[in-house]
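Render this sequence as a predicted structure.
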Amino acid sequence: MTLAASGIEAISLAHGADFDVILMDIQMPEMDGVEAAKAIRSLGGHNALVPIIAVTAQALPDEIERCLAAGMTEYAAKPIDDRQLLVSIQRLTSKEGEAPAEASGAIAGRNGGPGGGEIGSSHLNLAVVEQVEVAIGREDAVMLWEKLAALLDELLAESPAEHDPGDMGKLAAASHKLVGAAGALGATAISELCRAIERDAKAGGNPELTRRVARLSQVAIESLEAINRRFSANITLAAPVTEAADRQAGKDCENE
């Protein structure tokens, strides 16, 4: 573990070493955590993509959005829940294809079982969903979920079957933004799918990319249904990709 006493020192350390995860306090002398995160992302290399967890006492919607816009991956509200922080670190640093070890009860529904036995709940880390609700209130939590749905609509607006190589950079950027935004709200399955989509798009695309985007659409719909039940809300997607997925599936069958 390496400690930095200021934002400027954090940038210096990130310039000289690769880290597995960065915990970034928002309130620091000389340079705050938001500006330090932006600077670290601009360095390029390993630390341009390393998970950055914002640590803040101001868990308000505007503050959370500011952290995510700066390139941070998730946030942790003070006072820190040590167990939940460890769960987040394990998930963010787990190797591709390796299931992160979850703390007991970290992903659990209100009825005590995984996801409470309801469709969509299994896609969520309900401990984080509840943490957000407690930190900023139900109304503001719903607002953040509505903004997440809008980001998903941006990504899903075009059929993945119609993406050409020139669109891959845009798709990768949209996916990268969702990795952090979804993870910060507890939409774990959406976050992980977006991470895979980002990787595929950066590699120039492949047949699996279309399937992942179609899967993302379905997981997003089910996740939002679970959130709607929890918050008595009505958050929906404007651009599901089921028709595009069906077209691509037909092409795949023709090529086999």
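Summary. Residues 97-117, 243-256 have pLDDT under 50 and may be disordered. The chain has two domains: 1-80, 98-255.
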